[in-house]
Amino acid sequence: MPTTTISGHEIHVDDEGFMTVYDEWDETLGAALAAQIGIEMTDEHWKAIRFLRSDFPAQGETATLRRVSTVGGIPTKQLFTMFPQKPAKKMAYVAGLPKPRGCV
């Protein structure tokens, strides 16, 4: 399993750079991951990321955009504004979770 160092944290990642060990993530690392892809975190961003982080252990997979919208209560349009172009993929990356299924 490849590793990389981001903001002083050594983390395990897959071939696409998504984290593979849930417990290696913390919010400091999340902010560093967001900065790497050009996202400045706000309270609304953290709401989405915290939802993903809490939902993952219960569901066993990364939540889809639809789930974040319906269960997490964040409108899809807002997710596209906060995480432009590929919100599901970007949210998973920042949250330190696997890329969502069906996310090309």
The main β sheet shows up as: 2 strands, antiparallel
Strand-residue fraction? 5-15%
Question: Into how many domains do the coordinates divide?
Answer: 1
pLDDT averaged over residues: 92
Pfam family, one: DsrC
Active site: 103
Protein name: tRNA 2-thiouridine synthesizing protein E
Family: Belongs to the DsrC/TusE family.
Descriptive key words:
two-stranded antiparallel sheet; about 45% helix; 5 helices; 2 strands; mainly alpha; about 100 residues
Would you write up a description of this structure?
The chain is mainly α and 104 residues long. It has one domain. It is 47% helix and 8% strand. The protein is built from five helices and two strands. The protein has helices at 27-36, 43-59, 65-70, 76-82, 87-95; strands at 3-6, 9-12. A two-stranded antiparallel sheet has the order 1-2. Helix 1 packs across helix 5 (87-95) and helix 2 crosses helix 5. The relative contact order is 0.18. The model has no long low-confidence stretch (mean pLDDT 92).
